[in-house]
Specification:
single chain; metal ion binding; four-stranded parallel beta sheet; Rossmann fold; 8 strands; alpha/beta
C-alpha cells in the first residue's frame, strides 16, 4: 500500500472511531426516533426496509445505480457507519474498503450476511430467495435487541417477507422444472446461487467482477460449452454492457437477453420485479423440455 493510501485508511479508521465513541457525534437513533440502519448493497437494503418498516431509517452506502463492487467509503460515509444503530453487511472481499472500516471498529450491532452465504467469493446469495428470507430473520433479531418493545413487529415483518420470498421461490421452481440441467451462459458469473437452487448449470464468460475483461481462454471455454450443451442464449447485464455477449452471439448464432444480478439497482426497481423479469428471461432463453 502506498504512503498516501495508508494515510487515507488511517484517517478513515480514525473518523470511524471518533464517530462511534462520540466525538461530537449525534446520539444513537435518527432524529425522528427511528433506528438508523446502514447497509452496503441493495438486496440488504430491501430486507432491512421490509423487516424494519416505519421503525427504521435505512441508508445504503451504494447510491441507486452505483457499483457495489469495490465500494470505497468517503469520510462522511465512515461517520454514517459509525453512528448507525445497526449495520448489515456482506464481508469477504466484495467491498474490501467497507470490510476494513468495520474491522477497525466493529459495530455493536452487526448482521453478517455471510452467515447465509456459502459459495466463497460469490456474493450473490440473494438470487436464492430462501437465503434472503434467512437474512430477514437475522435482521429482525438484531432490531429486536435494539428495540425490544417492537420485537413482535419485527418478527411478524420477517415472517411476511419470508412468505413473499417463498412465493418467488415456488414460481421459479415450477417454471424451471422442465429446464433441469440446462446451461445458463452468462457474461458475468453471478448466478451460481440461482443455478444451484433450481438445477441449472452456469457457464460464465467473465468472472465475478463484470468490469474485468475475460481472457481468450475463458471465451474459448464458453464457446465449447455452448457447442456441447446446445445453449441458445447468452445472458448479459445492462450495467456491464453487451459487447462480449454480442460478439459471442454473432460467432455462435446465439440470442442475447438481459439477466439482472440485482447489484446495480435503480431507484425505481425492486427485488420482486427484477426477480420476475429474470424468471421470464430464463424461461424464454434456456433450452427446456416443456
Amino acid at each position: 500500500m502506498t504512503g498516501a493510501g495508508a494515510a487515507r485508511r488511517a484517517a478513515l479508521a480514525g473518523l470511524l472511531l471518533c464517530a462511534v465513541s462520540g466525538c461530537g457525534g449525534s446520539p444513537a437513533g435518527a432524529s425522528d426516533g427511528t433506528l438508523d440502519v446502514v447497509v452496503s448493497s441493495y438486496p440488504l437494503q430491501y430486507v432491512a426496509e421490509e423487516v424494519g418498516g416505519e421503525q427504521v431509517t435505512v441508508t445504503n452506502l451504494v447510491p441507486p445505480g452505483g457499483d457495489t463492487h469495490g465500494l470505497e467509503l468517503a469520510p462522511r460515509d465512515v461517520v454514517t457507519v459509525g453512528e448507525a444503530d445497526l449495520v448489515v453487511h456482506l464481508p469477504g472481499g466484495l467491498q474490501p474498503g467497507v470490510d476494513q472500516v468495520l474491522d477497525q471498529q466493529p459495530p455493536e450491532h452487526l448482521v453478517d450476511a455471510a452467515t447465509v452465504a456459502d459459495r466463497g467469493a460469490d456474493p450473490h446469495f440473494w438470487l436464492d430467495p430462501l437465503r434472503l428470507a434467512e437474512l430477514g430473520r437475522l435482521v429482525a433479531d438484531e432490531l429486536a435487541a435494539l428495540d425490544p418493545d417492537s420485537a413482535a413487529d419485527y418478527a411478524a415483518a420477517a415472517d411476511r417477507l419470508a412468505d413473499s420470498l417463498a412465493g418467488i421461490d415456488e414460481e421459479y421452481a415450477e417454471a424451471l422444472a422442465p429446464c433441469q440441467g440446462a446451461t445458463l451462459l452468462a457474461t458475468h458469473e453471478a448466478f451460481g446461487y440461482l443455478t444451484d437452487r433450481y438445477g441449472l448449470r452456469q457457464v460464465g464468460v467473465a468472472g465475478l467482477d463484470p468490469q474485468v475483461e475475460p481472457p481468450p481462454s475463458r471465451v474459448r471455454a464458453a464457446a465449447d460449452a455452448v457447442r456441447e450443451s446446445g445453449a441458445r442464449t447468452i445472458f448479459f447485464e445492462t450495467a456491464a454492457g453487451s459487447s462480449v455477449a454480442e460478439v459471442l452471439a454473432a460467432d455462435l448464432g446465439l440470442d442475447t437477453a438481459v439477466l439482472h444480478p440485482i447489484e446495480r439497482v435503480l431507484a425505481d426497481e425492486t427485488y420482486p420485479e427484477l426477480m420476475a423479469a429474470n424468471l421470464q428471461a430464463l424461461r424464454t432463453g434456456l433450452v427446456c423440455t416443456g
